[in-house]
Amino acid sequence: MWLSDAQKIGVALTSFGVLFMMLGVMLFFDGALLALGNILFVSGLTLIIGPQKTFYFFARKQKLRGTACFLGGILLVFFKWPFLGMCVETFGFLNLFGDFFPVILTFLRQLPFIGSFLSMPYIGSTLDRLAGSRPSIV
User: Fold this and answer.
1) What is the pLDDT of residues 123-137, one digit of tens each?
2) Distance between CA 26 and CA 136 in Å, rounded?
3) CA distance readout (Å), 73 to 83, 94, 119
4) pTM for the structure as a whole
5) 13 and 44 in contact (C-beta within 8 Å)?
6) How many angstroms separate the CA atoms of 115 and 33, rounded?
7) What pLDDT digit, counting tens, does each position of 13-60 carry?
8) Is there a contact between 127 and 105 (Cβ–Cβ < 8 Å)?
9) Which of 34, 57, 131, 132 lies at 20 to 30 Å from 100 by C-alpha?
10) SS3 letters across the chain
11) Measured CA distances, 123 to 30, 51, 103, 114, 137 (Å)
């Protein structure tokens, strides 16, 4: 898979955004780290898929509740309510990106060590139920 230079920068920005958000949560919801992580994540996502596709992704009718919660959570973090903002933002994130979880789970199951762990009887069935994936016919 070939990425353009802008997409490579977007992957780096998104990765740093996730890192800063995780650090912000681990450091007892530090508002500055969470705000920086949010800015990096959204700007990286825009660089990866492009501004027009980003707008269409967030503006789809079936994603409006997730978009409102995600952006509302970001605003709450900016307005110094980091814990409540992250709760609202997580709800919006799950509504926006929840459709990708079965795809991510399928990809992780193909990895050498992680795949065998995720395919164990109780773990596999629990993850399938949480991700909403259905067993393949093939």
Assistant:
1) 988 988 888 876 666
2) 37
3) 9, 13, 34
4) 0.83
5) yes
6) 32
7) 999 999 999 999 999 999 999 999 999 999 999 999 999 999 999 999
8) yes
9) 34
10) CCCCHHHHHHHHHHHHHHHHHHHHHHCCCCHHHHHHHHHHHHHHHHHHHCHHHHHHHHHCHHHHHHHHHHHHHHHHHHCCCHHHHHHHHHHHHHHHHHHHHHHHHHHHHCCHHHHHHHCCHHHHHHHHHHHCCCCCCC
11) 33, 38, 17, 12, 20
Type of residue numbered 101? F
- The contacts of residue 98 (CB under 8 Å, 6+ apart) are 132
Let me know how long the chain is.
Answer: 138
